[in-house]
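3.2 Worked example (two chains)
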Amino acid sequence: MICFILFVFSILISTSTTGGEGETAACKPTEVFLINCGATSNTSDITGRTWTRDQKDDGLNSDNASFPSKASKLEWPVQQVPYKTVRIFPSKFTYSISVSPGWKFVRLHFYPTRYGSDLDAAKSLFSVTVNGFSLLKNFSPGLTANASSKPFVIKEFIVPVLGEHKTLNLTFKPSPHSLAFINGVEIVSMPNRLYTKGGFDDHITDVGSNGDFEIDDTTALETIYRVNVAGDEVPEVTDPGMFRQWPSDSEVIQKKKFVDTGMYSRIEAFVLERFNYTEKTPACVAPEAVYGTYRSIDNVKYPKQNPEFSLTWLFPVDAGFNYLVRLHFCDSTGKRAALPRFSISIGNKIANAETDVRNMSGDPMIPMYLDFKTFLPGKSGKRPNLRLDLHPQKKENIQYFQCGLSGIEILKLNNSNGNLGGSNIKSPIALHVLRIILIAIGSATGLATFIIVLMRQTKRKNKKDNNVVVFKVLLKQYTYAELKKITKSFSHTLGKGGFGTVYGGNLCNGVKVAVKVMKDLKGTGEDFMNEIRSMSQTSHVNIVSLLGFCYEGSKRAIVYEFLENGSLDQFISVASL
């Protein structure tokens, strides 16, 4: 293993702030390292921050441990710094960076593109560790970027460097027949236990139990989601000292449309008054731009027809890990009546039965935040949804609901082996082909054919009674009468195949679904339940979700989400031309 020791001066950041008491002192990191990997000189990015080069002299390439290169082109909105240059690793390689003790943000920047004749980074597969923690395992930046809305990838971690440790060892290890690469590395110190001590009340509520949860100094975290509720993206330059990005929650908020109702989501901004940060909630927790917006729901037209309504967000995450869910609130109603009380549910479990933002914060315009721990069960490789619901306490004839939720952060905690890596991607090329095929599948006929083949390959033998119990918990079991209602008496046929007919329909929340009604089957139905079980265990960010099933006498059906991008046979026909 080659180890390259970086002698880089830490950059002290002086940040001017305008908030209340306690904000200024809390937002000055003691050290910031911005490393532009593969660069030959120090360069500033578009925000004015200076990134240092990662090589001491031109002789670094002589041992073939790593070598720099430049991107053949930069797609919009990829910036010159730090994505134009790259450092490529043919073998295991370690950056050793001298740091002061404490908790650190570690942000890794990847731009999976072609770098001259040296590397097609879209096909790279590698692992990353830091001080004994496994951050990324068999990681494919190409697949990750393809599944997102941006051509580059930023992975953020929170790592403790405590005790006698004064070095942060960041190691890249290519998978067999592959190369590793990195474009930029950020290391930012943070206030002690900013993400591990608990919310403004110093508590982390363990969802599903009656007690609190503690995060000790041997735990590393990965930021999975950080969103600005109801507002636009908040860039790192707007987050003084911590340099966090806060994308909009538009991709995870659930649009709830009900027939014959006027229920909808509405964004409201309250930025006329100054926010008052406190010692319990200093400005380093979240910037003003985050607390300035939150979502609300109107139900004015038909309150009696829709007494049950809520705000819901769905976050796909890796199964088998604990997650820290941080919710940021601020009562921005000023001198008006305080926000209504509401309950918080995480993963369909009550996390806080009665939340009163005004009472907890003390006054309007004072930000506060709550921390929760939840565990997502399941086998490695599955991508279940972490569900967040806010329900008004008073449901009878309620016409308007606003809760003051301004920001959401979801962080993964390492497991007992020190691992933060998600599913182990064995073949990026095969998964890339799979992704193309699945995106092309929109017709329920093509999708059903693909799923049936997949089910046949992974079918396992289990007892019928046990299967029924499991699926009643994990999946919704519909009655045949409910399917008739969803499909309007099976009036809209999407396609027909050897296994049955596929109908289009809508759930009560407006979500479009495809309902595959199998041909009348005889027997105990054990094979059908085994196939449903196999489908429920097949999960990937690019595979449509199985939503439920029907098993009622000889009537069998599967319900899954519906995509509208053309059928599989059309895709194959086009590809063969």
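3.2.1 Second chain
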Amino acid sequence: LANLLQGLNSPDSAVKEKAIAEAEKRLREQGASREEEESRTPVNRTVINTSVRAFPSETKAAPSSDGFLAALEKDAKERAQRRKKNGQLADALKEKGNEAFRRGEFALAVQRYTEGLQKLRDKQELYTNRAQAYLKLHEYEKAISDCEWALKCNKNCLKAYFLMGKAHLALQHFSESRQCYEKMLQIDPQKENLFKECVNEADLEEKRVKDEEMAARIFESGDVTALSIQELLQRINSPEQDLPYYTGGIRLLAELVNNCTEQTFFRTNKGFSLLRNEAVRGAFCAERKSAAEVELCVSLLLLWQAACAGNEENQRLLLAQPEVSAQLPELLSSGTSQIQRETLALISLCSGNENGRRLLLRQDLSRWLQILMAFVKSTDARADSAMNILSDLMGEERFQAQCRVLFSTGVLPLFTQLLVCARQVNQAALARALGVLGTLSADVELRAQLAGSRDCWQGCLLLLFPGVGTPWCPLSSPFVTPFLPLLDLGFFFPGVFQDFAVPISGRCLALLSHQDGRIVTRAVGVLSRVLPASPSAVEEAVKGGVVKKMLKFLKAGGQLTSTFAIKTLSVCTQSSRRAQEELLKGDKRFQLLLRLLQSEDELLVGNAAFCLAQCLLVPGAASALLGSSVVQLLLRHAGGDAQKTSVQENSAIALGRLCVAEPRHIHQLRKLNGFAILNSSMKYVHSS
């Protein structure tokens, strides 16, 4: 028993587990023994012991089973208390380690986490936290070991696999690194984006290593270009030379860097440390540049373009330099066309690929939308370059978030100004800028700011509706497609349409003859949202032949266009007697509406029933439906279980009006036993 208790208290987990197993075995045996004793028939087994009794001091009392169980229970309680106390101490040490880690004192953090593990050896968080500190100290093997221990505590520990993947990557164990990331994805498939980033990082690092190994072999072979790049970099880094000297050297260097191997030579020979040269850095960062400083700056930008084209590792190193990230927006705003052009070209190299965009988005881009939008005023290639960059960035959530900072105070006033003088700026670039705003309006906050800018809306309308003497042609205008997404703002902010419903609906009517079916569908959709905001817009639209055009789209049968078209008709027939009469005239015996009533789409059915109910107010309309299946269709929908209650309501109203306007339909209703449904629907008829 003493040995067993000693084993239960052992710090060695293997010894402790063995002791626990032995204790459980003895308890089972004793329990079985008791049951066996109780089941036996009592027998007198008294035996006379003729041997000499030993003195009490010469015998050793055997421990009883009750005493053994009590000892186990006492030991369990003591161990639970010790574990609770040690857990509290371990948590306190973990917090101290976290504080040290946040201060950048990684060695101290390791010490605190280690002390915590001495208190509680199976605390997973201490292992992963210490592994993270080891990564900062570049002790990668120790980090991997701690991650393995964390996985023994919790086999599904995502952080352990993530940190172990990072440690293997630092040791250039690329296969093992990817395996860790794959395990992470298996545990939590929702981490797919993180998985892609990690694997991409591993791929780039492996490529970098291979490129540098190849470059080293070529350099050792005495390659002339490699030696020239090294020599030029040494000369450019020499101090106390005049600016033309540095400019000439940088120009020569840019001509030598033409492929991946030469880009690697440039990187491995510390080509990105040119800004450490005081004269070069001064010229690059100067607020007001002289002609010589402009030449040097342009030369640097050309060199970086050559070094970074298609080379993501070089892009990373370039953008990691504080001077570069700080100066990019200043160079774009410099007012010097050469510098602006080459800066835009350099940024385009990065924005054109996913990794480059990720690098750019690490910068503060809050000013970029305003700066790049200003290039719409340019009449040369700068406008297109700026819009290309915006097109690349505008889909990124981080960019949208940064745009919020200056959107209402900086971007919208600038854009409104561009709209007002639209005839004097680059038309194609302005159309793309309009598209950028339309895309950014997907962001809730930006959408609210845009919808609230009355001046911006007036500018948009002025752009599309120039007035007398300057006719607008929807078939050739470059602003049609990008403008339509902005009109969708009215779906979220009806106040926008209340102010501009008449001109917007008029322009959408003009777009209905456009050759591009997507533009036509979008225009019909905007009409279906604009018209409910303004009775005047409905009146103008009906005068413009909207009913006839909507019937044409319904006959064509496109699903989305039909949904918008029947909604537009329901709005028009609700308030316009002329629209009701034109629909009756254009849809002989309501064949189109009857066809829509047979649809499985509740939106189509509900609006078709509504249109029919409005048109039945016209004398003779109900008679035109004699002999049709209209009663059966309306009865089915009025008593149906559609999710949208408007289907039942509109069908019931139409059914009631049908029978009131033409009593001969009552016979068909009676034949179908529909009076109960009609009676239950009378409340809709009265409320209508």
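3.3 Remarks
Residues 65-102 form the longest helix (38 residues).
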